[in-house]
Each structure stands twice: as structure tokens, then as C-alpha cells.
Amino acid sequence: MNMRAAVTDLPVVLEDVSFAIRDVAILDHLSLAFDYGPPTVIIGPNGAGKTTLLRLAMGLVRPSSGRITGRITWGGRENVPSTRRAIVFQRPAMLRRSAAANLRYALNAAGVKRAENTARASELLALVGLEAIAERPARRLSGGEQQRLALARALAKDPRILFLDEPTASLDPAATKAIEDVVRAVAARGIKVVMSTHDLGEARRLAGEIVLMHRGRIVEQTPAEAFFSAPKTIEARRFVAGELLV
What we know:
Elements: H1 3-6, E1 12-21, E2 24-34, E3 40-43, H2 50-58, E4 65-74, E5 85-88, H3 99-109, H4 114-127, H5 143-155, E6 161-165, H6 173-188, E7 192-196, H7 200-206, E8 209-214, E9 217-223, H8 224-229, H9 234-240
Parallel strand pairs: 3-7, 3-8, 5-6, 6-7
Antiparallel strand pairs: 1-2, 1-4, 8-9
Helix pairs in contact: 3-4, 3-5, 4-5, 5-6
């Protein structure tokens, strides 16, 4: 991995960032950072602001208030093009072509040379376990297979940070395990993974760091082992115990 290239997008730092839609606060004065290391898993109830946080960190939306206007930096710089970061949402859209052609399209968009495209597509399909069904129409794949293909397309950009918005939502256990295996493989390559989930079991299995959100705020950000063994806040203790946060 080229560490010199990696610093262009890491760390991702949000300083006093808020976000509102029509005067309804979604995020309220958040300050946190995502840096090199094992996956960061964002947990919290529906409406906590997890997806909005990922969209802000990706650079898809801008802060609406905060210190000046709220500040987000990537590798110490503002307004950095999203060439070394990628995001996968819960319901990825598939092009009307094969799984392999979906991936080749993403590689072309990422500027991969034509001579390298086929080999790179095969490598990424193998990484996500889809090489055996590479020529199957993408829209006929199962939900879990489509999610893995979306992960492969995101990796076509050779990102240094990968944001995943509830990647296993509504998937069965086998499909969930397949996604989690890909997340581990991606993290092992030195790519920073930041993902949201409702599943505490998944958070325990994958997280090196936990961020607990509630009502648009960061309640706790701590190493995963410490979070699950000795949560510091009342909200965290309740959430770990399976109680509802409302």
C-alpha cells in the first residue's frame, strides 16, 4: 500500500459539524475523526443520524451549521475530491448488464487502463466471492450477491477509506457472513472501513472502534472491547443491554 497516497484522505476529521433539513436538526455539533486502523462501527437507533454522518464524511453533503459552517477535512485538507474514498448504501443500484460488466464499468470510471481492466475485475470478483457468477445479469443476483458486487465496484476506486451504510440489513445469516468476510478482507488490505449497523453482534465481530449515536449526537466513541465490557454512559449501557433508546 502506498502510504504517501493514503494521507490524501485520512484522517477524516469533522469539527463542530451540524446538519439540518428545513430547520429539523439531524446532526448536532459533532466532532470526531476516522483514522488508520481496524473498522469503526457506528451504532444507534433509527433516526440517530448514522447515514447522514456517513454522507457528510464521504463529502456527498455539506454541513449546515457549526463553527463558521462546520468543518470537514480529509488528510488535513478541505474540499478534497472523493477519488480515494467510496461509499456503499443499503440498496445499491445495478446496471442492466452482467456482474462482470458492472465492475468493468466502475473500473473504467475509475480510470483503470483497458489492458488492466479484465484482470482487475477478476481480482475484485474473487475478493467478494462472485467469480463463479461473473456473467450472470447483476439484477438477477440475490440481495447479498448484489451487495458484494456493490462492494467490488466501490473498491474499483482503490479507496483508502470505505463507508458502508448498513451493508447487511435484511440479509440472511449466510449472506451476512459473506459480507462480513469481505469487510475483514478489505480491512486486512489496509483500507479504513467505517460502517453503520443495527446489529450488536455484527459490531462485536467486526469493530475495532465503536461510535454510539443518539438523537444526532455522539454519545460514546471508544475501542470496541472497552465499549462492550465497560460502557461509560447510561445510553451505552442501555443499548448494550438491548434496551430501546428513544
